[in-house]
Amino acid sequence: MAAKPNCLIVCSSATQGVSAQSFIHAFTLTHSVFNVQIATPQGQQIDFVKSDDNSRKWLNEFRTKPFSVPGKLENVDASRYGAVLIPSAPGALHDLAQDKPICAIGHGVAGLCSARREDGKSWSFKSFSMTGPSVFESARSADFSSLPIILEDWIKDHGGTFSASEPDGMHVIIDRHLITGQNDTSTLSAVQNLILLCNARQGKAKS
């Protein structure tokens, strides 16, 4: 049996947190296909938000597992991972701003903003088509006026092509090795596409 590929799940450790439902969907799907490692800035614990009784029960069980302890994002060797996944996380706007599959969902798309090409200046995802929370969705947030960036505007201003569906609608865009989902509702479809993309690449590598 072939060894499972490795997948890095990058989460925010900011107090604004990570969407519980998006994380649960993302982890459950990837854990069955990949060897998963979780990483956060400075290896800090994750604050989960938007949780209900079922998700709190799942998270309480999850926290008893050794793999629930995040590693330090700063110490990660990216070459070890076949894919990177960033679940939806309001906190990613505050602390997460190589040609391998990358999947970012909701506010987790903010984790792509700091990626730079080799010249250190131009954005790595300039000219890519992608999605994320629309201005309208972001404006519904109570802390909208204090958000460090508005993703839709930032992507357009830095050379990306942005599109979104209706608020809270499922919307996923695939462009080359990048998969983005508009919001929490898009998590399942986005992660399924990440798995399909990784499987397709593995198939090509074997042929």
From TrEMBL:
The keyword Secreted belongs to this UniProt entry's keyword annotation: yes
GO MF annotation: an example: glyoxalase III activity
Signal peptide: none
Example of a GO biological process term: methylglyoxal catabolic process to D-lactate via S-lactoyl-glutathione
This protein's GO CC annotations: early endosome; extracellular region
Domain of life of the organism encoding this protein: Eukaryota
Main location as per UniProt: other
Entry keywords, A to Z: Endosome, Secreted, Signal
Name the UniProt record assigns to this protein: Glutamine amidotransferase-like class 1 domain-containing protein 1
Native source organism of the sequence: Pocillopora damicornis
